[in-house]
What does this fold into?
Amino acid sequence: MKRKISIIGSTGSIGTQALEVIEKLGDKFEIVALAAGSNIDKINEQIAKFHPKYVCVSKNQDKVIGCDNVLVGNSGLEEICSNKEIDIILMACSGKIGLKPTITAIKNKINIALANKETLVMAGDIVMKLAKENGVSIIPVDSEHCAIHQCIKDISQVSKLIITASGGPFLHKTIDDMKNATIDEALAHPRWNMGRKITVDSATLMNKGLEIIEAHHLFNMNYDDIDVVIHPQSIVHSAIEYMDGSVIAQIGLPSMHIPIQYAICYPDRFEGIKSKSFSFADAARLDFEKPDYNKFKFLSLAYKAGKTGGAATVILNAADEEAVFAFLQNKIKLYDIYQITEDIYFSMDIIKSPTIDEIFDIDKEVRIKTNELINRRQACLSI
It folds into this structure.
């Protein structure tokens, strides 16, 4: 029987790779719905190839061709995620827009393949509690969390999670190099081809900080039992340590097709798109080192926010995102991203158990304050 799937964020990097996986798997899947933002040309190409029953776009719905059921905006996403004929939804969109549709899908007892970081960073306690109450599986798509998921047999026997990080383009650069980095240098990731925002976060290691928070929620693991290790080759995607000292790692060449396929096919495995078979001999060496917490300060701030809990991670995420956007517009320097985020983080009162509505209110407030701070800094520099 075909597995019925919908993809939220079908025109982005994860969404397009997921469709490549589904195409390779042939008759294993039926695509019920595709949702995108404003890339109408791309969604029209996907409609012509995959023939979804429903399509959702953020605007220009009159330009969508080849689908009789065209939905619009947040209400359209909610409708897709309320469709109980769907077996699994791939949340491949970026940003806070993925949070409410994920909650709707969980309430409708639809399993989630999760690639949207903000869902757990902003509201991990709420989302995971709802998933447990509704018997919904949340299978991670991020290569690191997918690796951990593949290694775990019994989480109660796991003593530590070990998240690997490539170190990004500034691993062997100085702090001064980072302070003077150009946009192109920050976007020159040595291992992964990702969107601009997540690539900048990888350059500052903020992305790894967000993954620490995600791992805490996904696997119900204490922050003190989640380690980060630098691994430039990106061959070991992450590992776990059992209480008896055994360490189990998931290994393979860098390819997002593999974790995407694992997540949407779980618990089954099929021959699909493979980068190529991994050869230990060809790999020759695997290097590991501790992160430089002085250079990559976001790691410590992420641990602090995670341990504080409540709205702390909402503040961290929103401030960083606005600062990254400012950097990509050449308004601030790369190293300013951390300083701005830290300043905003410590200026905010932290609600311990915010509701979903409060989370969105806090997110909005943080973004306004962050941009006000950025504008003040620009004004001072121009004097």
Remarks:
- The CA atoms of residues 373 and 379 lie 10 Å apart.
- The longest helix spans residues 356-382.
- The radius of gyration is 20 Å.
